[in-house]
Amino acid sequence: SQQGEEDPQALSIQEGENATMNCSYKTSINNLQWYRQNSGRGLVHLILIRSNEREKHSGRLRVTLDTSKKSSSLLITASRAADTASYFCATEGNNRLAFGKGNQVVVIP
Amino acid sequence: NAGVTQTPKFQVLKTGQSMTLQCAQDMNHNSMYWYRQDPGMGLRLIYYSASEGTTDKGEVPNGYNVSRLNKREFSLRLESAAPSQTSVYFCASSLADYNEQFFGPGTRLTVL
After folding, report:
1. Nearest CB to A33: which of B100, B102, B104?
2. Tell me: the pLDDT tens digits for A61-108?
3. CA-CA distances (angstroms) from residue B81 to A94, B20, B62, B87, B107?
4. For A4-32, how does the pLDDT look when each residue is reduced to its tens digit (9 = 90+)?
5. Which of A31, A42, A101 is closest, CB to CB, to B42?
6. Smallest CA–CA separation between A25 and chain B, in Å?
């Protein structure tokens, strides 16, 4: 089954710096989604990018999608301590939404 | 709007006991899902319901049953709990299949 794989698995940065995470997948997709999970909480949808889109912005978030390389990146600009969380990519295709294992981001105040 | 609610928040079972996890959404969504989250495994789909009256198996359905009681409610039942079912269970809903999903707060289940 297709599955997003996030890279790096863990990231520690200073407040104010940018954080970049990558996601790779194996098969064709209809869309790719990014979610955030704070410790002990449910996932929160951040952004959805369709297979015919290359870049999308939402506030401090920027997502790119390269279907030829089967990869996506999530950039968080000017990070804040509140951005400390796990970030998951999820790929949708063949009537399935497959989640990656997640990427732990720690923003140090 | 409460969004997606789940009960209970925590549960401890002994091997062989049964229980039902409840989930409800008030967003008039058509699709609902049950996932389990284990350390290092990400989220895995147990069952989903594309619309009221339909349910389908996901990636890891063995040992579970579901009921889409109505458009709002989607329950997950463990008939005979096993230690391998120790996990955090999340319910989610979306307006249509695999669009943006809204998650509940989760149920932390321990099977001894």
Report:
1. B100
2. 999 999 999 999 999 999 999 999 999 999 998 777 889 988 899 999
3. 31, 11, 11, 12, 15
4. 666 667 889 999 999 999 999 998 899 99
5. A101
6. 14
